[in-house]
Amino acid sequence: MTAGFETLRWREAGGRSPPALVLLDQTRLPEEERRIPCADVESVAEAIESLRVRGAPAIGVAAAYGVALGAWHGIGSGCMRATVDGAVERLGRTRPTAVNLFQALDRMDSALEEAAGLADVEVYHRLVAEARGLQAADADLCRRIGEHGAALLEDGDTVLTHCNAGALATAGWGTALGVVYAAAESGKRVHVYAGETRPLLQGARLTSWELQRRGIAVTVICDGAAGAVLRDRGVDCVITGSDRIAANGDVANKIGTYGLALMARARGIPLYVAAPTTTVDPELATGDRIPIEERAPEEISNGFGRATVPEGVSVYNPAFDVTPHELVSAIITEHGISRPPYAGSLPGPGKGA
Ligand code: MRU
Q1: Is residue 85 annotated as a catalytic residue, yes or no?
Q2: 138, 243, 250, 281: which is the annotated catalytic residue?
């Protein structure tokens, strides 16, 4: 079962065309499948900021290619190092919560160090190779998460998910939805409730789009329906992705996840978080210091071109929240299923369990 679409694709330079990162513009879905070529650092940064590409792993991979584009523009400039440093700095200012972004930028920085003394063109090729490696690794990690997580689902299960943690949010396949896809591949029938995910509707626009394409039964609900759905509609588990996981298992994810976690706990329904270890931040002991992105009030007051809040009324728009580890039944990584206490069981980036 393949996605049938590419969230992001690297296009080599050819003829008079410069290299580009080609993105499926997620702000246009589900109305239109529009691909946009980003040929410089600024267009990649803009795409990340405006959620044309989004989801923690996909942001990391896109930023890595953004650094490679910076190197392309540095060829022959006499200041390759400064140009690439500038790219890393700009891309690091796009979105603060997903740690995958910073891990990817660190990897690109190390690749740049290792290429010190090489000709500019060779530095550029090394950075492209590093970004390609990150993309391939992410696809592989997601597959492994799916295989481990599928064991938690039975034939006929009903899953509630929030936001989009699917192929669109990664280099392919997905984390939370990767679990569903792997279960479906092994012959299990799964029905997914997708919370619409106010204010930008990643659940309604994106999760339902990719599930429908893969023939998985999906029902969209407004976020406010989650409590009643958990009580009345036979939900077996909640599965979400994450943007950053602290060493103790506190989980940052799309705003609304914490509320869902509280409701799931009250109903005795397990909450599983599916994420690669590139989402684990071992430097943060707890979730208290995870930086939470606050986005423009207009996303709430004027989303999708219509005023829905009277002018002058204040709006608070945090993009993420932190769910305390006590509410998380298991964390599924590429290494397997970690159970509480996470401080001992959760593998970190690049490490086994
Ligand atoms: O603001 P977004 O759409 O980038 O938020 C994405 C999420 O919250 C996802 O659940 C998370 O990044 C995990 S994606 C595999």
Answers
A1: no
A2: 243
